[in-house]
Amino acid sequence: MVDWRERASALVPELRAVAMTEEWSCHVFFSELSQLAAEAHREQDDDVLRRAYGFAHWCFHQQEQFLENAALISFYEHVFDDWDLREEVAAWLPVDVLPKVRALWEWRWPKEQLDEVDQLLAGLQPPGRDAV
């Protein structure tokens, strides 16, 4: 089994204490990571964004289904929760995640909001898409 805690600590040392707290699941870590990413979007901190989105994308590609699901449910499903950051967020979303997370967005959002996100995501070539 992959040790997500070690990977999280290495990529996002700002959240090492959260990652290494055994009582907390990766869902708790993703909640904290989402907040860190939103702050990094506001500060235009590409380094933090690359590491945060890189960790989520790494989890999405692990063989353990629970890590993929955790990334989808506890990170990608909520990336647009701060609607004011939607344009910045859209630029960082990996194309391979979109088909799976879009189904979650359909369940949560009104059609107008989903249409706007679809337009934002159409044809974007995000910065920092390289996995870390």
From TrEMBL:
<dbReference type="InterPro" id="IPR056091">
    <property type="entry name" value="DUF7674"/>
</dbReference>
<protein>
    <recommendedName>
        <fullName>DUF7674 domain-containing protein</fullName>
    </recommendedName>
</protein>
<feature type="domain" description="DUF7674">
    <location>
        <begin position="10"/>
        <end position="99"/>
    </location>
</feature>
<dbReference type="Pfam" id="PF24722">
    <property type="entry name" value="DUF7674"/>
</dbReference>
